[in-house]
Amino acid sequence: MYSGFFSDNCAGVLPEIMNSLISENNGFSRPYGHDQTTEEAKKILKKHLGDAEVNFMLTGTGANVALIASVLRPFQGVICTDTAHINVDECGAPERFTSCKLLTVPSYNGKLTPEDITRYSHCSDFEHNVQPAMVSISQATEAGSLYTVDEVKEIARITHENGMYLHMDGARIINAACAMNKTIGQITGELGVDILSLGGTKAGMMFGEAAVFFNKQLAKDFKYIRKQSMQLLSKFRFVAAQFKRMFEDDLWFRAASHANSMAAYLGRELENIEGVKLSSTPEVNAVFAQIPRKAVDEIINEFGFYIWNEKINEIRLMTNFATDKKDIDAFISKLKEIMKK
Ligand SMILES: Cc1ncc(COP(=O)(O)O)c(C=O)c1O
Predict the structure, then answer these.
(1) CB of 60 sitting under 6 A from ligand 1
(2) Ligand 1: nearest atom to the Cα of 209
(3) Which label site among 140, 164, 235, 321 has the fewest CB atoms less than 10 Å from its CB?
(4) CATH of domain 15-248
(5) Structural domain spans, the chain
């Protein structure tokens, strides 16, 4: 069975990243991120992020949880969409480890709107209610959509106007920056994002993410929270080596560009099949399509993917840096054959 469409972390590791791990596997250095490679990687990342404090992490869930924990107190809450990864795909970790409630709003194509930010305003200053104190948005969203520059700016403005902080879950921020032809800093810190979970794994690293503070005052206690969150890796230099290689030239852009263009191609091919409906035009590396149930049941034996919405027979197909056009063509040709029956 072809498993490449399941997720963007189904692929292996970019060869350049693998080589960076091999090169790092040399000699000795101080553990826990007090090493030369970590310093160099942070310097390189600053060129992409602007003035920010970067902390390497192991997982995206860990980055989200530790960032929330470092900013909020247990009686405060995070406004996010009902489809947000922190709400549906982290096994309740944000609520368990931060004691902060997630205050969900219905998503529109994966996004929340500026109006959603004030939806919980009536709770403010009332001791019976959780106090809304953070807004969390995902870029790209779990639905494969992108917030525009103006949308993020407006969300940041209203968030701050209401005395809250803006968190961005950037598990796919590299795909987003590539699709928008901007640096990561231009679509995060420059627009008013306070804290960012910066994804590396889905972009082609073996493992490793980062917790980024554009609002550096919020980072004061982060080193303690990262340790308590069990995200302090003694051999952090191997995460640093990967980030350093990813961002020292345009590798991040080339890898994401391939993933995004493969999704665009897959979307166009699907659109041409009678009886198949694209849920939306792919904006990054995710394709959502509605396919008759009979066809889903047949093709899923040969090509793995997630059924996203059972009610409307919507499936999700992810592409990544290693997606081969030949596999997309094989999928399309099989689907056409099934649809003709
Ligand atoms: C939007 C989003 N956030 C965060 C994550 C982080 O996940 P993990 O904890 O598996 O690294 C993912 C991975 O699927 C994701 O899609």
Answers:
(1) yes
(2) 11
(3) 235
(4) 3.40.640.10
(5) 15-248, 252-340
